[in-house]
Structure of RQC P-site tRNA stabilizing factor:
Amino acid sequence: MRLDKFLKVSRLIKRRTLAKEVADQGRITINGTVAKASSILKEGDELAIQFGTKVVTVKVESLKETAKKEEANNLYSVVKEERVTAE
């Protein structure tokens, strides 16, 4: 599944176009490698997403084309959240 679609379905990012913009800015990594919106995700991959001053690292648990709001949290598990200081 494409990265931008997973971010939308899992509700980590609300809109697919916004997920594409964030990926194009180089603020998302998959297993330590900078990712594009079209990058293909597999179960078990680790995503690090930078939201402003916060970096959230999540592990992909399952991939679904669609998910209800209640099911969205089951698609990933949060590994860690950390604040990033501006340098």
About this structure: Helices lie at 3-9, 16-24, 69-72.
